[in-house]
Amino acid sequence: MLLSDYDWSHNPRGLHVATAFESPPDYSRWINPHMGWAKLLAAGNEYLRAIEPLLKNNVTPIVRLYVPNYGAGPFSRTLQQIVQAFAGEGVKWFEFYNEPNLGVEWPSGFNPNWQDEAGVIKPLMDNWLLFAEYVVSLGCYPGFIPLAESVAPRYAAVPWMDAFLTYLASNALDRFRAVMANGGWCATHPYIANHFYQEGSGGGARSPASEVGTQGGWHFEYPYDPISQSADPGRSVYGGTTQTPYGDPNGLIAMGRMFNERCASLFGVAGVPVVGTEGGIFPFRDGSFQPDTRYPAYNENSQAEATVAMFNWCATQAPDWFFGVTLWKEDEYYLPGPVRAINRLGEVPAPFKTVPAIPTMGSPGQGQATSEPAGPGPIHGQADFHMILLGPGLDTEWFFDTAQAYWNLFRPIVTTHSELIQFVPNSRSLAVTVISTPDTVDLMQSQIKERYVNVWFDLIVADTIDNVANTFNQRARVNRRFG
């Protein structure tokens, strides 16, 4: 399937409904501000009669199967029937599960953890695959599970997504590739706070009062924009700095980028569509909002200009795979009366996103062809860089508690993300100390040793915490990095 084959409005503007039980919706709330997406919550068939009017107005519906506190519940016959009914009305885009990294989405008393493969990751992925394969069989598009874009250790979106994709690579590689080759896409929830700005004439950011949504100079690429990189050089969606140990997904395209880069590495999926099915710049009506003091505050008026600019940026500057955002949510934008952003969107014609005919699939471990070997170059003498890579089920906090003396002595890069290896240029060399549980040794070898032929592969099997601690303490005592 080509990226251009997906059927949608090509208008990145969208709005999320207020509730699962509103039927019919007030169509003017999508038509007047020139929306191109409508996110619907389907607890049953109550939104069925909304599909035809939306499609006639070039508004593409996305239907999420809505079951409160469902956790990793099965893709039941009832849910199949709901999908089939909406597909019969012309819906193509479907979602199943919502923010499973938050306890509120699970049965009462259950506290989910991305390190719990048997109780959390496995049932989510196994059930999602059944949903996805059914949706594909209808000629429709299954959305990969959106996460709350948190950075808190237990709920952090980046290790959760990494756990999902690593499980699929180990247990359902061919099935997942088949889904992605036949209509799969990724749902994200980019609540981007104040991580955006418009450049001023003298450099830096304009004041909120001087922002104009229809003019250029806007930045929505956080955490890769100049302000972020100046304040914390090297920050990425994966983290990469001491300030971001659990990643930094709080940007418009950050989690979509992480998903596509990780899928390119593991599955050869080169360009999967991404739609932010909740998010945007939240429309505060009173006062100003500035959660990140590195960036300008915004108020209701500047939020309106920035929302116009955000959608224009989606159409003209975002990656080809980013198809837009459905603003959270209908009542916040319309009650007790429309916020300024709704009026501004109505005043400005909707942008049109042109999508190139890019094939979505390559070979596993081959995201995009290159003219030189992937990743680092050969080692001459000693490696330029040293990385500690923790396999699935291990985290950086555990490493620092276990190997403090070793880290104090050698100060390697410590990460849980093997995809960072590809960013070491071929002109530099790398040694990687891999800490792996016994059951993931083969996976880590295939991801690193077999793919990056020039990388020095130093393996430590984490059969027990004491053995790992003894290994690192012994290395520190004799001043030796590697075993």
Provide an overview of this structure.
31% of the residues lie in helices and 13% in strands. With 483 residues, it is α/β, with parallel strands linked by helices. The protein contains 15 helices and 14 strands. Helix 2 (51-56) links the parallel strand 2 and strand 3. The chain folds into two domains: 3-347, TIM Barrel (Alpha-Beta Barrel); 385-477, Rossmann fold. The protein has an eight-stranded parallel beta barrel with strand order 1-2-3-4-5-6-9-10, surrounded by four helices. A four-stranded parallel β-sheet has the order 12-11-13-14, covered by helices on one side. Strands 7-8 form a two-stranded antiparallel sheet.
Fill in the keyword field for this structure.
single chain, 483 residues, alpha/beta, TIM Barrel, Rossmann fold, 2 domains, 8-stranded parallel β-barrel, 4-stranded parallel beta sheet, 15 helices, 14 strands, globular
